[in-house]
Amino acid sequence: MTEVIRVFAQPPEQARKIVAAYKVRYIFIPPNFNEVGHYRKIAPQGLANWLVSDKPLPTWLERVHLKGEGASRTYRIVPPPAQPGV
Amino acid sequence: MNQLPFPHAFAPDAKFLSATALDMRRPWIERGHNALWLVAALWLECTIVWLVWHWGSFAHLEFRDPDDALRLMQVRNFVAGQGWFDVSQPRVNPPFGGPMHWSRLVDLPIAGLIVALRPLLGDRLAEIVACVAVPPLTLLAMCLALYASVKRLFGPHRTVLTVALLVTSFPILTQMAPLRIDHHAWQIVASVGVLGGMLTLDPRRGGWIAGASMALWLHISGEALPYIALYGAVFALRYVARPAEEWPRFIRFMGALALASAALLLGVKGWTVAQEIHCDSMSPPYLLPLVAMVPVLIAGHRLLGTATLLRRIIPLGAAAATGALTLVSYAPQCLHGPFQALDPLVYNVWYLAIMEGQPIWKQDLSTGAIILIPGLLGLGGMIGAVLTEKDADKRFAWLSILGMALGAFGVSIMVLRAVGVAHLLMLIGNMWIIARLYPRIAALPTMAARVSLTVSLSLLTPFGGAAIASAIVAHFTDTPEDISHDRASTHLYQQVEALNALPPSLILVPLDLGPEILLRTHHRIVATGHLAISWG
Asked: Which residue among B507, B512, B528 places its CB closest to the CB of A24?
């Protein structure tokens, strides 16, 4: 639970570390959901507010459009580029 | 309302009349099972209203609370073959799984209906019918339990009136609405069992009923813990006041509570989980004090007797001290309550935002008034009944109900979600006020006065009290209700189902949305807002 709250309430770069540690593939966020509104209120710099406010997407996320998604937003986690020589 | 079922003047003729003729001389409601049929009719009316009101939400199982979605997920896993003792959620926090502590008992009626209906209706429809039908059936159980509990004390007229008030009490009914399949309704039913056990004429039978009901309540949810202390104190005070009559009830209440708690813990959780310490649900830290208190009570009672007040109180104090010491020595971490053990971030961001877990002064004015006004009305009625009741036994019963109601009201002030249990007891006070006023109104000479005052009695029902409270607050504050988010998320299920276009993956979603993802998609999630706090 703690990690989910941290992802949504912390700035994108810090959220990225947690998402990577858990090997999360997608982030799904419905802007009108009460809990999302709560994250936006308590953490204006957090990832939840960042995504819902249409700020420029962090480089580690890309939007996925799904049929019937309505107001919800789905983002794929972009894997980091392979290190040369690895 | 207060007339005797068989007036004395009637007795001399009795030997010349058949049983049927005798029955026909009684008021309609006292004949045969007429009162019970009225109770059934009240339940049916309420159920039809609920079904019509929520009809549009059935086809897609649009739950109003994530707990209901997760409950169905738990039932699905069970029906699909997950073990009786294993209530973990395998698609949460993979590969470890999400630990859960919810009781399988609440799953049983839902799973039973699904299994029974599946051959006839298919998987999907059987699931819908079970989720729609179980809450109203729980309400039926509550109506019948309340009827059985208070009929001896109040007689059929007032008992039916109490049930009629029950089916207008929104804080209670909201837990029995179709699709509200989580455990909250069963808690209120179990609380009626405790009330019934206290009011049962035979103290031995009453003690077993109350103790077993309390154990069931505690097993369904750890939220029952404060009520053990509060209701236990009422049973203890009854014993102090009337030792010879009430000792059999009190000791059987304690004994049944300890025995049934142990049996349920082992029978539902299994030996391994039954040994784990969980501060937020029934586990050894709460079972051991109960088990330890019983022999102390029996020994104290035998050694000291009941001759003086002090001799009656000393075993109670010793048992309470034994229970407290057992808890402190075995699991001191549980003394601070389950939620204090949460990570501070989770506590501040998640727990404090759940308004149903917060005290009355954290709620908006309208909610606070809806809790307070019907509650105070009910308490006023009970106090009136205690002060005016002439019969000593009935006054004793009223005092006991008042004691339980005061305790339950106190808990509901501290935690909003406890309002259902409190308001159930308050109904009895509401009933007393209405039953007291109605004969006087009916005796008024003018029809206009009779009709208008009879209609105005509806303001004294839980629904009327809540409506007045809400209207007054709205008038003075002019605050629009905060339901915009709920309206916007009406078709959230469609948005969630859109995720099925993606291959099965680990998805991070808001905590309260987790159960919907599990229910409607093939994906795995990091966490839900359901915790199992355990040590050791």
From this structure: B507
Q: Does A2 touch chain B (CB under 8 A)?
A: yes
Instruction: Kindly tell me the burial class for residue B16, based on how many C-beta atoms sit within 10 Å of its own C-beta (0-12, 13-18, 19 or more).
Output: exposed
CA A44, A47, A49, A50 torsion: positive or negative? Answer: positive
Shortest distance between the Cα of A22 and any Cα of chain B, in A, equals: 8
As a whole-number percent, the residues of chain B with pLDDT over 90 amount to 70
**Residue B297: which pLDDT band, with cuts at 50, 70 and 90?**
very high
The answer to whether the CB of B244 falls within 8 A of the CB of B254 is no
Distance of alpha carbon A16 from alpha carbon A28, whole angstroms: 14
Q: Do B526 and A25 touch (CB under 8 A)?
A: no
> Using a CB-CB distance cutoff of 8 angstroms, which residues of chain B are in contact with residue A69?
495, 498
A76 strand-pairing partners: A26, A62
Please determine, for the modelled complex, whether the ipTM score is greater than 0.90.
yes
DSSP assignment of B235-273 equals HHHHHHHSHHHHHHHHHHHHHHHHHHHHHHIIIIIHHHH
CB count within 10 Å of CB B522 equals 13
- Considering CB atoms only, which of A33, A35, A68 is closest to B497? A68
Burial environment of residue B444 by CB neighbours within 10 A (0 to 12, 13 to 18, 19 or more): middle
Task: Judge contact between A29 and A52, C-beta under 8 A.
Answer: yes
**Whole-angstrom distance, CA of residue B12 vs CA of residue B499:** 79
Cβ atoms of B519 and B127 closer than 8 Å: no
| Strand-by-strand arrangement of the A73-77 sheet | A61-64, A73-77, A26-29, B506-508, B524-525
pTM here is 0.88
Q: Is B305 left (phi over 0), alpha (psi -120 to 50) or beta?
A: left
Could A1 and B497 be called an inter-chain contact, meaning their C-beta atoms sit closer than 8 Å? no
Q: Do A26 and B346 touch (CB under 8 A)?
A: no
Give the total residue count for chain A: 86
**How do residues B333-370 score in pLDDT, each as one tens digit?**
888 876 766 778 888 888 888 888 889 898 888 888 88
DSSP B444-455: -S-HHHHHHHHH
Give which of B476, B276, B235, B491 is closest to B364, Cα–Cα: B476
Mean pLDDT for B455-461 is: 86
What mean pLDDT, rounded, does chain B reach? 89
pLDDT at B181 over 50: yes
Residue at B171: amino acid letter: P
Contact A5 B531 (CB under 8 A): no
In a 3-state reduction of DSSP, which class is residue B276?
A: coil
Flag if A24 and B526 touch (Cβ within 8 Å): yes
Q: Summarize the confidence of residues B47-61 as an average pLDDT.
A: 94
Cβ(B327)–Cβ(B335) below 8 Å: yes
| Chain B interface includes A65 (CB < 8 A) | no
DSSP B266: I
Residue pointed to by tokens 């607050």:
B473
Q: Which of A27, A37, A72 sits opposite B485 (nearest CB)?
A: A37
Task: Answer whether A65's CB lies under 8 Å from A72's CB.
Answer: no
- Residues B132 and B110: their CA atoms lie apart, in Å, by 10
User: What is residue B227's predicted lDDT score, i.e. its pLDDT?
Assistant: 96
For B444, phi then psi, to 5°, come to -65, 145
User: CA gyration radius for chain B?
Assistant: 25
Query: Can you say whether residue A81 is alpha, beta or left, with left for phi > 0 and alpha for psi between -120 and 50 degrees?
Result: beta
Contact B506 A25 (CB under 8 A): yes
